[in-house]
Each structure stands twice: as C-alpha cells, then as structure tokens.
Design a protein that fits this description.
Oligomer: single chain
CATH architecture of the largest domain: Sandwich
Number of strands: 14
Number of domains: 2
CATH class of the largest domain: Mainly Beta
Shape: globular
Number of helices: 5
Distance between the termini: 10 Å
Helix content: 10-25%
Length: 246
Amino acid sequence: MKNTALLGLTLGLFASTACVAEEPVLDDAEVLTALASATTTDGEVWNFYEGEPGEIIVHAIAEEEESAFQKLDHEEMAYTELFEELAGTSAPNALVEAQHRYDTIVLSPDASDAATDQNEIGGEMPPDDGIGRQRQEISATGYQDSYCSGFWDYSYCWPSFYGSPYVQRKTYSMYGFVGAVNNTVNFRMRRKSRSWSSWSTVLSGQALPGQVHHVYSKYFGRRQLRRWEVTGNGGNLVRFSVYGSD
C-alpha cells in the first residue's frame, strides 16, 4: 500500500500522526568510501559513496527533476551507467568494483533481519509566527511537481513545512529531497543496519537558500531502518519529500 502525503495535507491530519523527534542515545557517523564524482555540463555535481560493501549512496545538488534517480530503479540503470551518462566519461575502477559488490548482493539477498521497529513520520512544528516567510525562491508547486513521486511503496511530500520534518521506515531504498527557501537547512540520512544496532549517520549536509539536495541510499541485502530528516530548522520554511521501496 502506498502512503502519500500531498500538498493538500491539512495541519490537523498531520498532527494526528506527528511525533516529536527524539535524539538517540548513540549516533555514530559512518565512514563512507568516496567512489566517484561526476560533474555535468550544466555544472551539477553528483557524488557516489559506498557504505557497507554492496551499498552505494548518491548525493547530488541538481537543478532538474529527479529523473536521473528514477533511472536507477525504473529503468534498472547501473550506478556505473548513470555516472557515465552524467559525466560523459568511463566510470572509475572504484565505482566499477563497488557496482560488482552491489550486483552480488542483489543476486543473493539476505532478508533474515526481522522488522521490529515501527515506521514514523512527523517533525518539530513550532508555533506559526511567520518566521521565514519573506522569500520563496523555490515555489511549493514547482517543488511538488519536480521532487515528489507517488509511484513507490511509500511516498511523503511536504512542499511547505515550517519546522523540522522527518520520515523513518524499514526499507530497501530511500530517496530524500530537501529544498532550502530562506535559510540554510541542515539535513541527514541515518540508519540502523540491524534492529538491535544503534543509529549511525550515513550522510549529512547543509542546503543553502535556493538549493535542492538529493540523497539516495539503497541496499538489497536486507531491509534497514532509515531516517531522512531536517534538524534544528526552528520555525523556518523548508521543502521536504521522501520515497522508496519497502
């Protein structure tokens, strides 16, 4: 069943499912291995990393729609092929070797880890005091058209959110998008590799006003508890969406 939260989602409906984000007891930063960096002719930068063997993580600041990410799933494009399409050159050996590890995991997945953690959506919603309403370089409608998708196992979209939203799910993949409007926005992707593990931060960063950042994490060895979130945003406006495969 697809869970889709669209632009028309009312504050009252959201409040019925919202939870205040709580910091974990332990939040370790993962050590990512840099595999490749592709710069397009339009000046977009796409970075490829490897977390645990078989998981490739992509982070990009892109001006266009998320169509390049769609190719990884809908068109079953390999990471190496995506790199070559973006950069116009052959993929480096590090990415080729990581692609091989990824392919090996996909062919022999281990789905033995039981799903013991509940899914959550919510965020810190301070009182509506008008903070952050001066400028809106990225329109809510434009964001929804470009960075929200309903054709997935789960899909959430908040084109205009004042506060710090998050989505937490046990998934095989998670696409996260965040658009900064008037203020710099802190974001991060976290996960638990196993149900008994502590949280670790896969990737974190800052989106400057006018930017839309993309973070994509997929691992078919087993479902992992993943969390895409904005932190410390106060009462400022942010564009936020996430979707993926369970």
